[in-house]
Design brief:
Layout lengths: L5 E6 L3 E2 L5 E2 L5 H13 L4 E5 L3 H15 L2 H5 L1 H7 L2 E4 L2 H12 L4 E4 L11 H10 L4 E6 L6 H6 L2 E2 L14 H13 L3
Parallel strand pairs: 1-4, 1-7, 4-5, 6-7, 6-8
Antiparallel strand pairs: 2-3
Helix pairs in contact: 1-4, 1-8, 6-8
């Protein structure tokens, strides 16, 4: 199977809080570790952590250094390999510019949201489109209470929510990322 030209961005700004206010969320190191591992497992080309906060980018850099050149690099080389996919950007524009520099064209954007809404593409349909697409794609994952309406509206595609068996629908972003990547890139 040819792996599609897919990138993932974990967006910490602009996202919503539970009141619908646009906020910047904190970076959670376990999200960085676990989503990087999922990205590496499914052949994602790069994993971006998007935050405008210098201190949070510094935290991620320290973690990455530990696994790239510190004790972690020899203690668990698999983790180091996964974290090698991580890139830091201040905003989504920086992510798109970075991908354009690497791939020669701007990525098309597919957004995720647990909120119900219109103009959704199914996982099966988007999986087929992604597999046939010669262009890079950027999958946006929101933190907090999700991506802002402006970000969702600006995306080329919006995936349907991950749904379980009941009405409860509040997965952690790292769990949702693993489910989404499996649905789009998994062999099953």
């Amino acid at each position: 199977m040819t792996v599609p030209d897919l990138y993932v961005a974990l967006v910490h700004h602009p996202v919503l809080d539970k009141h619908g206010t646009i906020v910047t969320t904190s970076v959670t190191v376990i999200d960085v570790h676990d989503i990087a591992r999922s990205c590496r497992t499914y052949g994602v080309r790069g994993f971006y952590v998007v935050t405008p906060v210098d201190a949070l980018r510094g935290l991620v850099r320290r973690v990455l250094r530990h696994w790239d050149e510190g004790f972690g690099s020899t203690y668990n080389p698999n983790r180091s390999e996964a974290l090698g996919l991580v890139r830091l950007e201040r905003d989504l524009e920086g992510v798109q510019i970075d991908i354009e520099a690497a791939r020669g064209r701007l990525p098309r954007v597919v957004a995720t949201s647990a909120r119900e809404g219109d103009a959704r593409v199914s996982y099966a349909d988007f999986r087929d489109e992604l597999a046939a697409s010669p262009e890079p794609w950027l999958l946006l994952l929101g933190t907090g209470w999700g991506l802002t309406d402006d970000v969702l509206r600006s995306a080329d595609r919006r995936l349907e929510p991950v749904r379980g068996t009941g009405s409860y629908n509040h997965l952690s972003v790292r769990a949702a990322a693993a489910v989404i990547l499996d649905r789009l890139l998994g062999s099953g």
